[in-house]
Amino acid sequence: MSTEQYWAPQTLPEALEHLRASDVTILAGGTDLMVQSHAGRARLGSTLLNIRRIGALHTMEADGAGVRIGALCTMNELQRDPLIKQHFDILLQACDHFASDQLRNNATIGGNVCNASPAGDSLVPLLVLDAQVELQSKPNGSAQVRRVPLAEFVTGPGKTLRTAHELVTALWLPVPKPGFVGRFYKFGTRPALDISAISIGIGGVRQGQTLTDVRLAYGAVAATPMRCRGAEAVLEGRALDAPTMQAVAAAARDEIRPIDDVRASAWYRRELVHNMTLRMLQDESQT
Question: Is the pLDDT of residue 138 over 90?
Fold first, then answer.
């Protein structure tokens, strides 16, 4: 089926009203959707809904105990925003390794989340930061809002909990506790331009040589980006000494569920996860 209608609303209520129709494809930055469409991996619906003109989706603001990031904020906008710089350095690190500067001008954080790639660059730091996905819809003529933890939102490659009549409007990130530290690592032939073979996010509250409230997240090592809860438990509240770091790296290697593909074998991904988790922890222990 070819696209027959094109809508470009300027307000959120108008966009939600359009989403009540059937067979609607949402267009934001288009850096993934259009490539996939031309390659035959994605089908455009009979109606194309371009949401780029909705100003309310471009804002970043403090919201209670966290920061609300509009779904249309681009990677370059994230890098320049003072709230992101103040609270979420690990997300900045990931943005710096996100494709090319030209793509960062158009690629949106909402689009990267909705694309639901196991190797999505923003998903790993967002998991470390306990991000929640905000969705809005208008099923019965009145707007409804719900939030879903990112860890639950992505259900498989290209699959999410978003229903056909919902729009991802924002990401909500709780402000980390005082003393929070975060590190991001991405491995690829050209780390900033290629899809990652693996990516790693490590976060926690630093107290001397100890990390608490530990988060270890990995990308491109399972059907979805994942938290390694077992490895987190090994590190939680323990000193960053050599035996602990070795145990954490081994636990992460054994917990991931990689596959063989054109970017790396499952064996190589396990070795990368072990070695780079260990190196990141060693670097953190020396700061």
Answer: yes
Q: Output phi, psi for 271, to 5 deg.
A: -65, -40
What six digits make up the tokens of 218? 């990995």
| 50, 29 contact by CB (below 8 A) | no
Q: Measure the CA–CA gap between 135 and 12, rounded to whole angstroms.
A: 12
Tokens matching residue 213 = 């409230």
Q: Give the tens place of pLDDT for each residue, 174-226.
A: 999 999 999 999 997 765 567 899 999 999 999 999 999 999 999 999 999 99
User: Could you give the CA distance from residue 256 to residue 220 in angstroms, rounded to a whole number?
Assistant: 10
Q: Judge contact between 234 and 214, C-beta under 8 A.
A: no
CA dihedral for 265, 267, 268, 273, sign (positive or negative): positive
- Tokens read off for 12: 């959120």
**Could you tell me which of 181, 184, 176 has the C-alpha nearest to residue 93?**
184
Q: Which residue has the tokens 């681009």?
A: 74
CB atoms within 10 A of CB 248: 29
Amino acid at 31: T
